[in-house]
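Blackboard transcription, Thursday session:
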Amino acid sequence: MSDVKKLAVIGAGQMGGGIAQIAAQAGIEVVVFDSFAAGLEKCKALRAKLFARAVEKGKMTQEDADAATARISYVESLDAISGSDWVVEAIVEDKGVKFDLFGKLAQMFPDENVVLASNTSSISITEIATSAGDAASRVVGMHFFNPVPVMKLVEVIKGMQTSEQVVSRTIALAERMGKTPLPANDRPGFVSNRVLMPLINEAFYALMEGVAEPEAIDGIMQLGCAHPMGPLRLADFIGLDTCVNIMHVMLEGLGNPKYAPCPLLKQYVAAGRLGDKTGMGVYDYSKK
Ligand code: CAA
Ligand code: NAD
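(Written on the board underneath:)
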């Protein structure tokens, strides 16, 4: 059983918020930091809404919801996460930004018991660990799935420098959070996105080439292949910017042009249509 007492989540977006929520539900104190103050407010409001809905549906008692809410604090300075014994990074899928953060985290957390985990979708854990210098053996991939409170999996990625003990502790923490951990090696996109992103990209090619309308592409994959969401809807849900970033990591890391993002997908991102999070992607969510 994991003995983590205080977990820091960096990045209060879709993933960070969900990770904070399930950690608090597992009885862990959580501190959430985001460099964007409005992101913290949005994250807090969404947690309140989800806890209220769970109580309404009888899936959680009001007492448990209040206790979980009270376990989460939101801070506007990175320094305020000090004292944590586990960090999960869930910021933008950008190598430079993540490397910079892990350099800072290594300085902030010299204690060799503190684990520095990344929720990256695709970026090399070995490279992130290298940016953490002496703390490299404490860096691990802890890849949750969206929506975090619902999806059962945590993909656990061991970088070349990650210690076996850190991997075991990551598995224990994922289980304590109610998840099923499964291992994947440190290759671009690991298993999940190596398989998922080509599907999403192909759906954008089908759309770009006029094979069918978005609703038909998604409907065909839902009704014909039993996917809970069609690939275009799923891309909006993940974030089209995140999809493009993941494809670039795979393109660069695997050196195969088949991973290059479809021009239409890139065009949506260039237009600021990033999916659910901006209210508009392939579909319009502004009236939801
Ligand atoms: N946050 C938290 N909970 C959410 C949620 C969210 N954003 N969206 C839905 N839920 C919860 C609902 O509250 C509901 O919970 P209860 O049953 O306890 O009430 C449950 O999910 C089902 O929701 P709905 O009935 O509203 O809708 P649904 O049955 O259509 O399911 C879904 C919604 C779970 C998202 C489902 O469509 C699904 O599984 N979609 C596929 C998701 C998927 O493939 N995720 C992986 C993305 S890839 C990734 O994460 C890795 C990466 O690196 C990019
Ligand atoms: P998001 O855009 O919803 O949220 C990212 C948050 O990070 C934003 O609130 C932003 O303000 C904050 N941020 C950016 N740079 C920061 C910094 N330097 N310091 C502090 N905060 C910073 O993104 P997301 O979808 O939550 O994705 C976060 C990470 O999780 C990415 O690495 C992504 O690849 C990965 N991931 C995403 C999904 C998904 O379905 N969206 C699934 C699994 C993993």
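Lecturer's comment: The first strand starts at residue 6 and ends at 10.
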